[in-house]
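Summary for the steering committee. One of the milestones for this cycle was to obtain a three-dimensional model of the protein with iron/sulfur cluster bound, which we needed before selecting residues for the alanine scan. The sequence and ligand used are listed below.
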Amino acid sequence: MGLTGIQIFKLLPKTNCKECGYPTCLAFAMNLASGKAELASCPYVSDEAKEQLAEASAPPIRPVAIGAGVRAFKIGGETVMFRHEKTFYSPTGIAAVVSSDMDAKALDKKLKEWNALQYERVGLNLRPELVALKDANGNSSAFAAAAKKIAAESEFNLILMSDNIDSMKAAVGETGFKKPLLYAATQENADDMGNLAKENGLPLAIKAGTLEDLIALSDKLTGMGLKDLVLDSGSREPKKVFEDQVVIRRAPLRAGNRSLGFPTITFPCEMASNLDVETMLASMLIAKYAGIVVLSDFRGDSLFPLLLERLNIFTDPQRPMTVTQGIYEIGEPGKDSPVLITTNFSLTYFIVSGEIEGSRIPSWLLIMDTEGLSVMTAWAAGKFSGDAVGMFVKKCGIADKIAHKKIIIPGYAASISGEMEEELPDWEIMIGPRDASLIPKFLKEMAT
Ligand code: SF4
């Protein structure tokens, strides 16, 4: 369990030098205890205290980094049972399986199809991270060759799935640079798999039939010096898998059980006979509390909802999702195109930009930073006032892009038009519709 602020304070130099950015060592200790400060901010902690504090301030569920390159990611590091208590930090990794006996052409085709499944949302690129390569028949050279192809020719990171230590060694030799997750150490092969993972500095999944066996295996491998473990409770029955996920999350957070203080891997692909049911199970497991879900395939209609669900669950509930302030071109607007303005709450942006796009009238959309508040809320909070909006219009540079001086403000913010006219005396302030769905009609009428 973590130390209290007072226990941490006892290990600090107590000079109150303020170099950490806090007025006193006690304030720093309190913030460190609640996870708001970093130990590295104090340059004067002794090595001995550092060791004790690092251990105590480590997240109860160890963060485990998997992969390299643009799709590298981290799982674990969670500190709460429920998102509203603070936030969830590490989005669930999403994987699909291929078999090592797939011929090279078919594998190429699959990787290309899967690579195309990328979606832009809220300025983010949403995409899956992993391919799980299953050793089909213990043919170590075929397994290593397929692993090499995936690692070298695609952005995907790898889960290497084999019980055969020779296959695993061969594949690690080809793909170690991509930091694959090795799946899995069991009671039977724990020494070999543990040594391979340790020698190559790779994360290792461990699998057991019961939680008691999983704890024993985890203790054995951490005893061997392994730190980056990923847990598979072994069950493939949905209700049991769900219960296991909750127990594994709860044990380190509520009972200080470090043996289960690791992220998990789950296999919807082994729990259902079709991708639709797999997707439903994956959706449950993304919410509670899988580190990785492995599907049998990636298909746009199942992957996209999972990516969106993941995006929503792994955003900080205390920070609204925003888009960057600036001028957005919708279509190919020119000097005579209409100019609209709204706030940077991402939902507002997507609804408004979607309606403008639907109107097929190329337009300029000005997005003003209102700290992620919607139009009405921002207006009520004084962040979308006439003078602030007017100042933003002046400074954003839109005047250099257009040959007119007309701007459309949201209907719900009609009351700011007077102040805007004062701030922008040579502009015509037009009141747009209250309901975004009426934007296309409004723009078409303007155009005629
Ligand atoms: Fe105390 Fe270290 Fe902060 Fe100085 S930098 S006030 S010694 S915690």
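Key point for the committee: The pocket of iron/sulfur cluster is lined by residues 12-13, 15-20, 22, 25, 28, 42, 44 (CB under 6 Å).
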